[in-house]
Structure prediction request, 478 residues.
Amino acid sequence: MSDLLTLLSSIRWQDVIDITLNSYIIFRLYVLFRGTNVFRVIMGLAFLWFFQRVAVSLGLIVTSWAIQGITAVAAFIIIVVFRNEIRSVLQARKLKAILWGFSHKAASTPIESIVEGVFDLARRHSGALIVLPGKEDLSEVVQRGMRWRGWLSKEMIVSIFWPDNPVHDGAAVIQGDRVMEVGVILPLSHRQDLPSHYGTRHRAAAGLAENTDALVILVSEENGHVVVAKGSRLRVIHGKEQLERLLQEHVGVTAPPSGYPRKTRLQLGVAALVSVLFITGVWFSFTWGLYTLITLEVPIEYMNRDPGMELLETSVNAVRLDLSGSGALIKSVRPEQVHVRLDLSEAVVGRHVFNITPENVSLPPGVLLRAVKPPAVEVTLDVPIKKELPIQVDWAGKLPKHVILSGVKLDPEKIQVVGGSRILENISTIYTEKVALDKIEKTGTVQVKLVLNPASLRTAPGSDDTVTLTYLVNERPE
Prediction:
């Protein structure tokens, strides 16, 4: 639970945008393809992906690999098999409708024109087949006729099924306010329970209705009856009101044109919620599954130090940070993005121990601090002063036996040193680097560096950290 809370606290504004954008894309796919075979297959792929992630979490390597392969092949099959359905959905809409709009059949299908045209044909005993597709694609079921795309009207319907029209024996497909195709050949039903007096038109209407969610209107040439086929049922229509009601149910006219039906609004709301939950689950899956741990060595930065004090000594100059986060995020972390800062604004002269807490560590969003090594740092502060100290040569080794050192001179003999008051009060002499006596054979001069210990000491401005050593050497009398 603590890991989950830590992960939630690490969500970045980029992650919020990422989840929102992809949730909206999923929601738009639902709006565009709901009720179609494409959407059902996409839902199947989503379940496959879910089971693949479960297999990964359980360590089922072969199962995970197999499901992953099936998912990849299925995604390719969708594009190939359902290309016509996908194209029909996208071509029928403008870019604005694809990105934002909602389909609303109630406003686009002139039901009254269909009803008037159908009963005019029935009065004339002109046979007709009119197809109003549902949400399923008909391209794999019917035999295409002639592309029409004419505006729908009573006169258009009557003219298509006029006996002298070459396409009057086929079906007309209506989508929205247009007649999309005419002369379409429908599949025949092979049901044995249909009345014996039903002819080819009746069996064609029943055949398409059985295989799809389309509604088919049939006008009998023999008796002028109007029949509606939907699903496995064929019903005889006895009046315009009955046909109008069935058409309204089919195209979704259950609310005024100014708004969407309550059921539709509820479905869209549930779809939006499911989209957000699904993408959030995907985000958690990838973030949790790719959780990575790295270690960085970061120098310590000391902030807000009193300019009247100096940092004389620290136990460490850098700390090692154990960091965690999603793999992609951890790989993008650069050392200059990570800082460890200690605030010395309230520090006084003396030795201090600072615990390094998460508040002292600055990290990129989404990266979590797991541990700090060492967890504390010792810092010594002091007020710098100047002190003049004598210089003494640090001799090493022995002189050769045949010489004696008769005189030594340092230039300068004293030097001003700057350092902490608490340190300088215990120092009375500054030594040079070691000078080897065994290499001295004759009188000479050499430049020797000073040893400033501890390292916080430094020479005062105008002073050099080297001195000139002059030594006088005489032969030892025998």
